[in-house]
Amino acid sequence: MEQMNTAAAKSIRCRAAVSRVAGQPLEMEEVEVAPPRAHEVRIKILCTSICHTDITFWRMEGNHPSIFGHEAVGVVESVGEHVQEVAVGDMVVPVFAAQCSECPDCLSDRSNLCSKLSNVAGLMPRDRTTRFSSVSTGEPIRHFLSVSSFAEYTVVDITHIVKLDVEFPPAMACLLSCGISTGVGAAWKVAAVEPGSSVAVFGLGAVGLAVAQGARMRGAKRIIGVDLNPDKFAVGKRLGMTDFINPNDTGGKTVSEVIKEMTGGGGADYCFECIGSTSVMAEAFQSTRNGWGKTILLGVSGNKAPIGIPSHEILRGRSVIGSLFGGIKPKNDIPMLAQKYLDKELELEEFITHEMGFEEINRAFELLTQGKSLRCIIWMDGAKEIDNGV
């Protein structure tokens, strides 16, 4: 197929779910999507999903009007100059984390945070402009996390693109673009969970459950899930959890006290915070054992509050580490995770609780905020509605 470049591509008008007021329902609008510029790709989105990070920023003032969404899969519609990695018709996963493969961070095994191209709030990373505008008013519309997948077409920098085999199931590819890769990657790459170890996971959304699965794959002996929703335990057990704690049902004990009792008095070897609550981050730290306990922070907090950890506790050999995207280098690791799915080593179907069409996106938001959904696959061309609950 002949490559369609910037010179040949024209603006496209399509539907997008635009967020105009913080915390209010998205508005289905007609938007204009400009052609890709140099080092950019325009993608026809096949399906997208909603992550808790979308919810966090949707509720915050100052991010509007925006097209949110960063968990998706699509097909390349056109490419800009200097794009050789993908071609028109390729199936690709857009990701919020860049990988330029040239900077010191991308060339190091110690980091997955590209230092050449960082996310620029609401804009494309290279020229700091937008490719979206309102058809009715001409008003520019902000991007989100370099992806903006709540639109039928979007423009993404090539450093934020991962190519997958066109035969790979699109819904499963969508899951790998953020949440599941984050959780599995955190267990594998950030914590490097050891066989026979004990793990506690705070928050059993999709990321937390993926951590549990990743820890099981690494050979953890005990995997403790912590969540206020007891319905999460059933799916957690299927993904590798051995124990469950409801913080409202501990008989007055703190969660850290319960975890220490369950682990012979010492505490867990690894604790993962997957909520974005600074108080839970502190409790996760208190749940780790002295000597080598490691706390991995994955949750996105919207209030930038400090974490209350006594300095003398750090001196006892415990550590805290933060992680974006679970340490995953997208172009290297997402194809590897896709292969693990094909080899039946990685479970993905378990995370899909709902499927619906694009026009139902506000209902998908409600399901996630109410804790009734793990991942809802939103099909741009409509879909048979599926509701499996949590």
From TrEMBL:
Keywords: Metal-binding, NAD, Oxidoreductase, Zinc
Species of the source: Oryza glaberrima (African rice)
Pfam family membership, one: ADH_zinc_N
Subunit structure: Homodimer.
Stated name of the protein: Cinnamyl-alcohol dehydrogenase
Domain of life, per lineage: Eukaryota
Positions of the Alcohol dehydrogenase-like C-terminal domain: 206-336
Principal location listed in the UniProt entry: cytoplasm
The reaction(s) this protein catalyses: a secondary alcohol + NAD(+) = a ketone + NADH + H(+); a primary alcohol + NAD(+) = an aldehyde + NADH + H(+)
Stored SUPFAM superfamilies: GroES-like (SSF50129), NAD(P)-binding Rossmann-fold domains (SSF51735)
Domain Alcohol dehydrogenase-like N-terminal: 38-164
Single Gene Ontology MF annotation: alcohol dehydrogenase (NAD+) activity
Signal peptide bounds: none
UniProt subcellular location: Cytoplasm
InterPro entries (UniProt xref): ADH-like_C (IPR013149), ADH-like_N (IPR013154), ADH_Zn_CS (IPR002328), GroES-like_sf (IPR011032), NAD(P)-bd_dom_sf (IPR036291)
A GO-annotated cellular component: cytosol
This protein's encoding gene: LOC127779441
Lineage: Eukaryota, Viridiplantae, Streptophyta, Embryophyta, Tracheophyta
Cofactor: Zn(2+)
Biological processes per GO annotation: formaldehyde catabolic process
Family membership noted in the UniProt record: Belongs to the zinc-containing alcohol dehydrogenase family. Class-III subfamily.
